[in-house]
Amino acid sequence: MSRTHTVATVSSAVLMIAAPALAADYSMYPELRPAYPNQWTLPDDDPLRFEVGLRYWYSKGEQTVKLDGEDLSAKDTSHILEGHFRIDDFSTSSYLKGMAGYAIATDGEYTSSEVPGAIDFEGGHIGYAGADFGYLPFGNDRVRVGAFAGYQYNREAPDIARVNLWDVDGLDIHSLRLGLAAKAEFNEMFDITAEVAGVPYAYINGSTPEYVIDPTDIGGGVIANRAVGRIDGAAYGASAELMAGVHPTPNLTIRAGARAWFLKGPATAEVNAYNSVDPDTIGVWGVVLDEIAYSRLGGLLEITGRF
Fold first, then answer.
1. I need a labelling partner for 302 at 20 to 30 A (CA). Which of 157, 195, 274, 282 fits?
2. What distances in angstroms separate CA 207 from CA 21, 91, 154, 158, 233, one per listed residue?
3. Recorded GO terms, molecular function (predicted)?
4. Measuring CA to CA, which residue among 113, 116, 120, 115 is closest to residue 66?
């Protein structure tokens, strides 16, 4: 019995002596890292920030053709849903953003400086898509200022349900955008983004809306009272956008603002004239337009996720 107690006493003493040495040896090695990170989000020093969201654009559009002193116009109100994204790289002060939108409802009217009154229309194809790359080298942690370049495609056929169903392709517009941009953030709660751009070149191709014209004899006993111009030409213009946002949570942004696009320029056109009762009988002649002008502007609402 005494031998057992003696062995136990000696063992305890040996362990007490060895413990400090084991602790010293263990401290020679770094602390083991966990197999997985403790949080699912990106680290605080990650240089990239992503935004993806939806916008609603209440827009007013207009296409106007000036020919021999006469103004032919088609104005529309379009309700547009738009998806958008933005990627900010804070390590290089650059960003990439894009958008695509399509009208879910459109209505409007034709007017002419020579024909009194207006003719209503509804239904149409209004859509667009584009992308910009920007660089914001100037400013501080709150406000950044710089420039951007981008491309935009517009599809403008506000009166797709017009009577002359043989010619409903509308206008295709390809635009180069060069501009200035600024972004400001306050207290991680509010932000303001603004941009203004020039459009040094835009290629316009397709057909105008259906315009009301003075009754014109096109032969064969047909008196034309409608005309569509097939357009081919270049234009120039400008655009601007201003958005103000609030961040109710770190990953949610709600914004409101306004946007405007303008283009104008000379163009050649092949005019197809016809009677609204018999749109299949047409008269065709080539002209050089005094001017074709296009605009779309209105208010924006946005909801966006940030991560």
1. 157
2. 89, 46, 13, 11, 12
3. aspartic-type endopeptidase activity
4. 113
| Angstrom distance (rounded) from CA 105 to CA 295 | 18
Cβ-Cβ contacts under 8 Å for 38 (sequence gap 6 or more): none
Number of domains observed in the structure of the chain: 1
3-state secondary structure of 24: helix
d(CA 210, CA 273): 10
pLDDT single digits (tens) 92-140: 999 999 999 999 999 999 887 766 777 788 888 899 999 999 999 999 9
Question: Torsions phi, psi of 23, nearest 5?
Answer: -65, -40
Q: Could you tell me the two tokens for 275?
A: 């009677």
Residue 20 included in any domain: no
Q: Does residue 2 form part of some domain?
A: no
pLDDT at 224: 83
The alpha carbon of 7 is separated from its chain's Cα centroid by a whole number of angstroms, namely: 83
Distance of CA 298 to the CA centre of its chain: 13
* Short-list 47, 46, 50, 77, CA closest to 61: 77
Token reading at 183: 């972004």
Joined together, the tokens standing for residue 130 give: 């584009």
In a domain, 33, yes or no: no
Which residues constitute the domain of residue 66? 48-306
Model pLDDT for residues 35-50, shown as the tens digit of each residue: 544 444 444 567 899 9
Residue 41 lies in a domain: no
The tokens describing 71, both together, are 């103004």
Instruction: State how far the Cα of 175 lies from the Cα of 234, in Å rounded to an integer.
Output: 10
Cα gap 222→98, rounded to integer Å: 48
The residues with which 302 forms a beta bridge, in sequence order, are 55, 255
Tokens of 238: 């400008």
CA distance 274 to 224: 4
**pTM score of the predicted model:** 0.78
CATH number of 70's domain? 2.40.128.100
Return d(Cα 15, Cα 33) in angstroms, integer. 29
